[in-house]
Amino acid sequence: MFVELNSILNTSPDDVTQREFILLSDRKADASFLIHHYLSFYLKAGCKVCFVGLVQSLSHYSAVAQRLGVNLVQAREKGQLVFVEALKASAAVMLDQTGGDVAQMSDYLRSPVPELRALFEFVRASLSQAEAEADSNSPPVLIVDDLSVLLSLGVSVRAVLDFTHYCQATICSQLQGSVVTLVRCDDDDDDDEDESSSHLLRALSHQCTLSLRVEGLRTGYCRDIHDQVEIWWRGTGENVQSQRKIFQYKVYDKSVSFFAPGTSSAVL
Amino acid sequence: MLSEVLQGTESGGFVIIRDTACYSGRRLLKYYMNCALKRGEAVHVLGFEVPEHELCAGLDSNYLHLFHFHSAYTDPLGWTKQSLFTVKHFSAKEITLLLQETQHANDSVLVIDSLSWVVRHHDTVTVCQELQKLRKAGGSVRMIFGLLHMDLHQQGIVGTVSHVASTVISVTPMNNARYAMAKTSQRKKSGKVMQKEEFFSLPEDLTLSIETKPNQSGNVQTDLYTKSEVDPTSNLTFNLHLSEVEREAREKVALPFVFSEEKKSALLRPGRGSGRIMYEPDANDDIDDEDPDDDLDV
């Protein structure tokens, strides 16, 4: 969890904004530090978290979380964290190793028309359960890292959008929780316009309430400034004005420092 | 022109509001819903994208009994078997049935939020046909409003769906956060097409304020056909037009080689001491033996 980001977003683990649909995206940069931020943020806030990891294994996430002061293994044993090892499950499905609940859930890769209904039902079941177990002060959270991997696995943009819509309708509206998703954009996938990750990103931008867009610096590599992030509060909810701000940042071992463009310590 | 969209009395109007992720057209949609409610018309919403409470917020609470939300938000595909209306039910027949369940005596307005959801799950041609059927059905549905996210579809699909509509409003954001620009093109039944660009601001309380685009304030209401005929005499460096005084002056000027009586008499009057040329051609004079083209190498 990065304190500086919390102060920019005007939030803290004691005061979690409910019903948020947060869209993280990156282009020619790496936004995974934001995934780690939100994972540790919501765990510290005491929320029940369902994490769908399509990019890394649990040990990777727990190693990073350890540095940020959160123990994933413990949280998982407590039942606060439901970790879906979709990375391993996808491979198992591809290699035709059947068996196990997770493989069942990744059935989407095999069915004639790939849809993510089984995955949604798993997410809903695991998060609604938390709702039943009382402690209703802390809203449930779904984090997906990341959605564009599903596209690479042959799931259509339409199926992914159906999945996110159901997640938003169930988790944000019914359970008063939040959804965090990451979409990675490549510049060279414009040839297939309808099935590209940029198309997915545009569609999700319509859906989201808060968008954090990480982009590489236009001037190229810099030692003191890693990349820039555009924070966009969308005016979808009541009383929220649409607002955009751009920050540059540098990622350190355990924290991130944000500053207005052109005001890094290396420049001034 | 934005404010006049709803005022037409003829039935079968179909309005598409096109937006992009940068600026949502949903608030404009809500403005029209609010206007229709205030006129005492029933508003039926097919809601796919936002929950009921979000769409309801800001609407006039005195008229909410006329507001009917057919929710396809929580379960648009029938996965959790919660809602009666799913995207599969998008057909003229089903929708007419749905409207008849809560039919009021007066006119009703159908709002589709959004068409993008429908287009994503149906064939474009089918969607256009069903919309056309709904328009022609007449009677219950006076007007249809639809929201379409332009940046989510191929250009051809956006064009096809827009052709069915009688009015297309495209909203785009301005640099100024308060104002946005709306490009309206309206096709009348007579075939006349009206186009207009307007700046508008629409705060939370849904009061629309419009400012016409400053650089074309003179001839805002342009017909498509006259617009294409540009006046070639408008930007000349010289004057092509005649004033009344200039015309009179021009008429007074005598043209050369036109013989007035005066001029004729002046020229033809035999002056005193004038000579006379006598010429008697000599027989040998004009004969030239030499070939004039001799030096040419023909």
Tell me the name of the CATH homologous superfamily of chain A.
Answer: P-loop containing nucleotide triphosphate hydrolases
Write down the secondary-structure element order of chain B. Answer: EHEHEHEHHEHEEEEEHHH
Radius of gyration of chain B: 37 Å
Q: How many discrete structural domains of chain A?
A: 1
What top-tier CATH class of the domain at 1-172 in chain B fits best?
A: Alpha Beta
* CATH homologous superfamily designation of the domain at 1-172 in chain B: P-loop containing nucleotide triphosphate hydrolases
**Sheet of most strands of chain B:** 10 strands, mixed
User: Strand order, biggest sheet of chain A?
Assistant: 3-2-4-5-1-6-7-8-9
Describe the structure.
The complex is a heterodimer of chains A (268) and B (298). Chain A is α/β, with parallel strands linked by helices and 268 residues long. Chain A has one domain: P-loop containing nucleotide triphosphate hydrolases (Rossmann fold, 3-Layer(aba) Sandwich), CATH 3.40.50.300. Chain A is 38% helix and 21% strand. Chain A has a 9-stranded mixed β-sheet with strand order 3-2-4-5-1-6-7-8-9, with helices on both faces. Chain B has 298 residues and is α/β, with parallel strands linked by helices. Chain B has a domain at 1-172: Rossmann fold (3-Layer(aba) Sandwich), CATH 3.40.50. In chain B, 27% of the residues lie in helices and 21% in strands. Chain B has helices at 26-38, 52-56, 92-101, 115-121, 124-137, 155-164, 224-228, 244-252, 261-268; strands at residues 13-19, 42-47, 67-71, 108-113, 141-149, 167-173, 180-187, 193-201, 209-212, 222-223. The relative contact order of chain B is 0.13. Classes of the chains: A alpha/beta (268), B alpha/beta (298). At the A-B interface, helix 7, helix 9 and helix 10 of A face helix 4 of B. Chain A: One of its GO terms (cellular component) is nucleus.
